[in-house]
């Protein structure tokens, strides 16, 4: 029972991060057509394309890397299946 309560508590703490990650993913999905248009337009000048993409992100208030932190926090949480747990000694 304690494990279930602990898992629920961790999930509740991480819920706002998950919501932020979902919102960020939606915003990035909406920006992708504009970003691909910019990269096609400035195919020979990647510096210019990067500058325009940064300007687009500043205008919309989004970041392509903003979704990484909430997902990383969820991955490293103790309730995550990939969380490294100590192994029992067999000797």
Automatic annotation (TrEMBL):
Keywords (alphabetical) are:
Membrane, Transmembrane, Transmembrane helix
The organism's superkingdom is given as: Bacteria
Q: Which InterPro entries match?
A: YidC/ALB3/OXA1/COX18, YidC/Oxa/ALB_C
Q: Where is the Membrane insertase YidC/Oxa/ALB C-terminal domain?
A: 1-75
**One Pfam assignment:** 60KD_IMP
Localization annotation: Membrane
Any keyword Flavoprotein?
A: no
In the bilayer, the protein is annotated as: Multi-pass membrane protein
Its primary localisation, in coarse terms, equals membrane
Give the family this protein belongs to, as stated in its UniProt record. Answer: Belongs to the OXA1/ALB3/YidC family. Type 1 subfamily.
The record's function comment reads: Required for the insertion and/or proper folding and/or complex formation of integral membrane proteins into the membrane. Involved in integration of membrane proteins that insert both dependently and independently of the Sec translocase complex, as well as at least some lipoproteins. Aids folding of multispanning membrane proteins.
Assembly and interaction partners: Interacts with the Sec translocase complex via SecD. Specifically interacts with transmembrane segments of nascent integral membrane proteins during membrane integration.
Question: Per its record, how is this protein called by name?
Answer: Membrane protein insertase YidC
Please give the organism.
Kribbella deserti
